Sequence to fold (822 residues):
Amino acid sequence: VAEPPGDPLADRYADRARAMTVSEVRALFAVAARPDVISLAGGMPFVQALPGDEVLRVVADVVGSQAAVALQYGPGTGHAGLRARLAGLMAEDGIEADPDHTVVTVGAQQALDLLGKLFIEPGDQVAVEAPSYVGALSAFSVYQPRYLQITMDDDGLIVDELEDALAGGARPKFLYVCPNFHNPAGVTLSLERRRRLVEVCRAAEVPIIEDNPYGMLRFEGEPLPALRSLDPANVIYLGTLSKIFCPGIRVGWVLASPPVIERLIRFKEAADLCSSNLNMLVAEAWLSEPERWRGSLTGLIDVYRSRRDAALSALQRYFPEGSRWTHPAGGFYVWVQVPGMDSRALLPSAVEHKVAYVPGTAFYPDGRGVDRVRLAYCYPPEDAIQEGIRRLGELVARPVAGAAAPGSVAR
Amino acid sequence: VAEPPGDPLADRYADRARAMTVSEVRALFAVAARPDVISLAGGMPFVQALPGDEVLRVVADVVGSQAAVALQYGPGTGHAGLRARLAGLMAEDGIEADPDHTVVTVGAQQALDLLGKLFIEPGDQVAVEAPSYVGALSAFSVYQPRYLQITMDDDGLIVDELEDALAGGARPKFLYVCPNFHNPAGVTLSLERRRRLVEVCRAAEVPIIEDNPYGMLRFEGEPLPALRSLDPANVIYLGTLSKIFCPGIRVGWVLASPPVIERLIRFKEAADLCSSNLNMLVAEAWLSEPERWRGSLTGLIDVYRSRRDAALSALQRYFPEGSRWTHPAGGFYVWVQVPGMDSRALLPSAVEHKVAYVPGTAFYPDGRGVDRVRLAYCYPPEDAIQEGIRRLGELVARPVAGAAAPGSVAR
Fold:
């Protein structure tokens, strides 16, 4: 980590400041912002597909008719009307949610921070999928845990591996999982594993944090039950409107048992007093007309499905033999493995060739994943996705100086 | 602190969860929300005085013409156009601010959380004014510091007392101060003390966190230079639009040296990825027409000055002999001492008599302040302020069962 030189406060910072490396997310933003680069890097929702006139009408209605509330401080728990709507959303996932057991957060990201704050002492063990959402690793790492990484396959987290680790004495404070259309892996936890996972975690008294940003963006197949619906007492559930509506209003939430919620509210208030009333009222209003938000969601799903198809067919066409990738049934990401590739070393030449991605190493706390990349197909149009994957395919097919020999590639 | 019973996770929480007591802020919201209670408790800005049509026009313009940005994720540092406007605001305070040394936060409250995270290890000492903003104490307390409390008088923090503590071996990680129209004390740090304070802190290598939410709400007299303008290298400056525009968009910011900013950005991204683009664009647009926002600010100042006058004349009229209170030249609060009063014990009967306030003890980490109350005159109209203070005056004039004897009142 490069540090600015000559910092007079260098010896004043808490240890956790040293645990924080330069943000991968920020570096990606800088690259993705260059208009000539095809970015398969950031997971930006394609908000252009939203019905702009309808959004404008909702926002203008809120400010026009509820200004005294919209412009004021709100409760730390979040606006009650919105929490009721969010409970309705969760009901679609088979979750019986009491709005009073829900806290509105600044995206689900803030819920991850608050949960890290609540559970993690330096040195505590937390269990995560390998790979895991980079933002969850950043949020937790502030609190200096040790990670227990559980491998995934095409059916999601390998529950046997978790069970073995628990039998071997692992005592994680919690398990963090993303069961639907995983970021970055693109896979979905199977029904059988969901049932096993909640049993194993309950028996071991390991609470589960279930992060479900993409669950409503299903392209095909039948929805699977949320972990929270299978074991309400032991699962903390995170949701967000960032992918089914828009991230610009920063509305996420957490559903948990009353003692956890009580503590999260205290931390939320200490962290930022309350979320934006304007944003919460806009979210509530958006969700108040089912035909509008469902129609808009159907449109988004159609866009993302076409882009997923474009990405998969381009991978088939342009990537070298021996490459493997997942087949996401929803969400934003496909996870690609090219044996022998050094995805970090390759990134500068990729950007030179006007295509960007996230190296696999970003999604593990320990440097694994060097032969993987995450490709996000959510934002660019189909032809750009295909051209970007064509450029990348050319690059990964070339031998890279200093690349590891195939035998040395980590699982 | 009452904890919910039967919590299966009770032994899983980090120590910092035990440091968090039930929120005073939340309790106040519940009381203030009752329409029959005159609330002199919460510091809610009187957003009804904003020009509603103008706000609506700004918000509709942003969504109508910049939807693809407003609805999208933004950079963790905050929207660049807004940071340029904020630098312009700080210039009015005599501060030369580089927008690149500024991070937009969710109100200034988030900046307090991020700074606590950056500096405080459990057991570290931090210096604060006594009394201090309750939200700053909440934000810092998450990180489990010990507090060095420096007393205030009518000229603000008593610099001699800080100097004595430093000479006696105190080594605080930072000093947190609110120099203008202090919350809760209503006093302003004198020019002479500002100059002394920055010298003393520089010599002792104690960085200053200067929190300035109310500085632009001056009713009379001349502005005093910001601490940041007196010693840019050693002062971290916090601002907010909550009081000069509105809190519903949750826009605050922090200005600091590049090494501190670099670290705050990492923590900000880990905490919530980014602030709301919609809110940041609304803030930028609001600040882009000086006549509009200055006109609106002048209107707000007139409202608050009248309410301050109403509060002070009512105190004069209705409070018992021996009471003392500050004379705020700006801001939201008057700080009242009634020797012998137990302000915590009195609160339930006050609410019964349909008036609310914040007991002085909320503003100290150690139970001091039992004979003080903070009265916020920002929200209720003049007649309600006077009636509220009349009711309160009646109550404090009565002997309270179990009240401390005058001799036992802490300074």
Q: What stands out?
A: The longest strand of chain B covers residues 146-153.
